[in-house]
């Protein structure tokens, strides 16, 4: 029997992924190479839904791809590609847009958050239709599982609704995907605002830990992370969200259960604990940073890896799209 398929995408919207992207998504991508037929894409078409510069996007797409390979994606085991290299994404998105209600799209909380952040004047229609393009990304590959952070759960629900709607109207075509959300790391929060998610576009520099950042600044940010009143290291999401976030991070990075960490740091101040968190972060990030730098030093080789990924992705996407065109009533090319 064929392995279940997994697909996920990550946006090239910054010069580095952050710890939330790594723990909530990338680390799962790597783990899921085992036992899954894995497809991962750098979603550059999503990155243009907010203001951007062409040259910056091109650079960030390479940096994003390099980080995926550096984190452990193996081009022989996974299909790693750039979304805009597979034209079917936009083609299927249009078909799905035509099946989506205005109210349904308007309910997406990420759109509401982002449009409020950028202001009505700079919010484009692309940002509004973004979740539908994301649905197309997933459905094109007939993915069974989609590893994501908690912020993407609502988009996954929309994807399932659209797949069901298409299947119902035009006949069984799409696999219904399930979110794959790893407990404990589904929402890594901002170091300065521990109630908000760590985010490329909205976290302040002091609140975000970038995968490609140097050890000095990383350590400084962790030592200066907002902690809560008192000095106990206990997991109390409500009253101590800052410490709870650091405990989650430390637990995920070292594989130590949170109660064990609470016991280990009992009676010790925040300083010792934070120093250990900084060490665990640096130990995880350093090899990824070094491998990313090496991959970026040979752009031609990196581009060839992505071209090979695109060939594999296109083969699957083309097969789905052929079915969609036929079922949706488009005339075949004679
Ligand atoms: N703080 C987080 N904790 C856990 N998972 C997270 N993800 C993002 N932030 C956290 C997961 O990372 C994957 C890739 O995210 P994305 O590039 O599609 O963008 P995003 O979810 O919108 O993340 P950002 O950092 O907030 O990016 P911008 O600011 O560009 O929108 C997803 O699986 C996401 O769940």
UniProtKB/TrEMBL annotation:
EC number: 6.1.1.2
Pfam family, one: tRNA-synt_1b
InterPro entries on file: aa-tRNA-synth_I_CS, aa-tRNA-synth_Ic, Rossmann-like_a/b/a_fold, Trp-tRNA-ligase, Trp-tRNA-ligase_bac-type, Trp-tRNA_synthetase
Subcellular location: Cytoplasm
Source organism superkingdom: Bacteria
One GO CC term on file: cytosol
Assembly information from the UniProt record: Homodimer.
Protein name, UniProt field: Tryptophan--tRNA ligase
Organism field: Planomonospora venezuelensis
Gene: trpS
């Amino acid at each position: 029997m064929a392995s279940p398929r997994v697909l996920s995408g990550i946006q090239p919207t910054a010069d580095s992924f952050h710890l939330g992207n790594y723990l909530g998504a990338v680390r799962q991508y790597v783990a899921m190479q085992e036992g899954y037929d894995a497809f991962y894409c750098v979603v550059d078409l999503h990155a243009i839904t907010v203001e951007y510069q062409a040259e910056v996007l091109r650079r960030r797409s390479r940096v994003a791809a390099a980080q995926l390979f550096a984190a452990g994606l193996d081009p022989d085991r996974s299909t790693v590609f750039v979304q805009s290299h597979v034209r079917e994404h936009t083609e299927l998105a249009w078909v799905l847009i035509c099946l989506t209600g205005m109210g349904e799209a308007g309910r997406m909380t990420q759109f509401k958050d982002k449009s409020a952040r950028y202001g009505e004047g700079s919010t484009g229609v692309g940002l509004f239709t973004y979740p539908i393009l994301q649905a197309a990304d997933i459905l094109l590959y007939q993915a069974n599982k989609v590893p994501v952070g908690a912020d993407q759960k609502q988009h996954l629900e929309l994807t399932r609704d659209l797949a069901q709607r298409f299947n119902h109207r035009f006949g069984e075509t799409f696999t219904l995907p399930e979110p794959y959300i790893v407990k404990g790391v589904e929402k890594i929060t901002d170091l300065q605002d521990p109630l908000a998610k760590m985010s490329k576009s909205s976290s302040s520099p002091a609140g975000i830990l970038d995968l490609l950042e140097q050890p000095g600044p990383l350590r400084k940010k962790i030592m200066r992370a907002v902690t809560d009143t008192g000095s106990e290291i206990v997991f109390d999401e409500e009253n101590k969200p800052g410490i709870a976030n650091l405990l989650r991070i430390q637990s995920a990075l070292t594989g130590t259960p949170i109660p064990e960490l609470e016991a280990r740091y009992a009676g010790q101040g925040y300083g010792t604990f934070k120093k250990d968190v900084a060490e665990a972060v640096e130990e995880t990030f350093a090899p990824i940073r070094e491998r990313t730098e090496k991959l970026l030093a040979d752009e031609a080789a990196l581009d060839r890896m992505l071209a090979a990924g695109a060939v594999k992705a296109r083969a699957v996407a083309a097969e789905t799209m052929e079915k969609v065109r036929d079922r949706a009533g488009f005339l075949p090319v004679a």
